[in-house]
UniProtKB/TrEMBL annotation:
GO terms for biological process: heme A biosynthetic process. The chain crosses the membrane at residues 12-34, 81-101, 113-130, 136-158, 178-198, 252-273, 280-303, 309-330. It is a multi-pass membrane protein. Signal peptide: none annotated. InterPro entries: COX15/CtaA_fam (IPR003780), COX15/CtaA_HemeA_synthase (IPR050450). Pfam families: COX15-CtaA (PF02628). Pathway: Porphyrin-containing compound metabolism. This is COX15/CtaA family protein. It is found in: Membrane. GO terms for molecular function: metal ion binding; oxidoreductase activity. Keywords: Cell membrane, Disulfide bond, Heme biosynthesis, Iron, Membrane, Metal-binding, Oxidoreductase, Transmembrane, Transmembrane helix. GO terms for cellular component: membrane.
Length: 337
């Protein structure tokens, strides 16, 4: 798929950054799922330390300074590992900036995309800080999740650009609707945002049955509460602040979104299959099937840690599959084939 002989300077670092970003996303999901988002109540340090207070005197001082957040090493390490790995990713993006500047005069060298990635990384750092200082305010937590997925996607696009990937075969673009593909992409982003809203409001177990939600095929309550985006800044949102009905409404909408996305994806995959893009279509549908299975497992088995973490990771991979297919179509059209 990737033509290495056409690769430009920065390809290897960009690809490594994609892999590293996937680790950051997985660590972020793990941190949320083990309730370690406030494992360190300050930022960027942890109780004023580079790692966490270990000596008894330091622990006592930390507990006195943050009485609402006593030191618990079982949740400090996931938070700090996530922070440090994210920091390493930031330095990798700085490396991409340097490569971009050094090779800015080469034909076809991406300029705007590395700059955009750097700006998103800076914004992500701010969201990471606000996630802690605003005590897991759902709006910021969801934005932080979307920022991570955006970084992942942009790094993958940069990798494709650096690789010099050229279409190796003609496809029948007449049978492909770029508009439908863009609708699938937008719906994927909306569904990821809904998943983030479910997670940040601790609504994953609000509908413990499947396929119904608390016995309802169409859940009738709590939408005004569940989708009130004016939640106050100040309370500690660890564990969530919404009532059961509000959480169930969020969960139900996420399920409906999954159904809509499934139908749209299958239509787009069918078009891609007819156009000759069998592998890309198969990967996209395969990831969708795995994601649906993980979603059902999370409900039926009450959010096993492995399944919930994988659900987050597969969502990111599904997003990349949609973006890759759209990029393939774009390359075909842009070369006038």
């Amino acid at each position: 798929m990737l033509s290495r002989h056409l690769s430009r300077p920065g390809y290897r670092l960009a690809f490594a950054s994609v892999l590293f970003c996937s680790v950051v996303i997985a660590l972020g999901a793990f941190t949320r799922l083990v309730d370690a988002g406030l494992g360190c109540p300050d930022w960027p340090l942890c109780y004023g330390h580079l790692w966490a207070p270990l000596a008894e005197a330091d622990i006592q001082a930390a507990n006195e300074a943050w009485p609402d957040f006593p030191v618990d090493h079982s949740i400090t390490w996931p938070e700090m590992v996530h922070r440090y790995v994210a920091a390493i990713l930031g330095f990798m993006v700085l490396g991409l900036w340097w490569i971009t500047f050094r090779n800015r005069h080469l034909p076809g060298q991406p300029i705007k995309l590395p700059i955009l990635i750097g700006l998103v990384i800076v914004l992500q750092a701010a969201f990471g800080a606000w996630t802690v200082t605003l005590k897991l305010w759902p709006q910021v937590v969801t934005a932080h999740l979307l920022g991570g997925f955006t970084t992942f996607t942009l790094l993958w696009l940069l990798t494709l650009r650096y690789s010099g990937w050229q279409p190796r075969q003609l496809i029948q673009t007449r049978g492909l609707s770029l508009r439908l593909g863009l609708i699938v992409l937008v719906m994927t982003v909306i569904q990821i945002a809904l998943g983030g809203w479910v997670s940040s409001n601790y609504a994953a177990l609000a509908c413990p049955d499947f396929p119904t939600c608390q016995g309802y095929w169409v859940y009738p309550y709590g939408y005004d509460v569940g989708f009130d985006f004016n939640q106050q800044v100040g309370p500690n949102y660890l564990g969530g602040q919404l009532d059961v009905e509000g959480r169930a409404a969020i969960h139900y909408v996420h399920r409906v979104g999954a159904l809509v996305l499934t139908v749209l994806t299958l239509l787009f995959a069918w078009q891609a299959l007819r156009a000759g893009l069998r592998r890309l279509a198969a990967v996209m549908v395969g990831l969708l099937a795995v994601q649906i299975a993980l979603g059902i497992i999370n409900v039926v088995y009450a959010i096993p840690l492995w399944a919930a973490t994988a659900h987050n990771g597969v969502a990111a991979l599904f997003l990349l599959s949609v973006v890759t297919l759209l990029y393939r179509i774009y390359r075909e059209v842009s070369y006038g084939k």
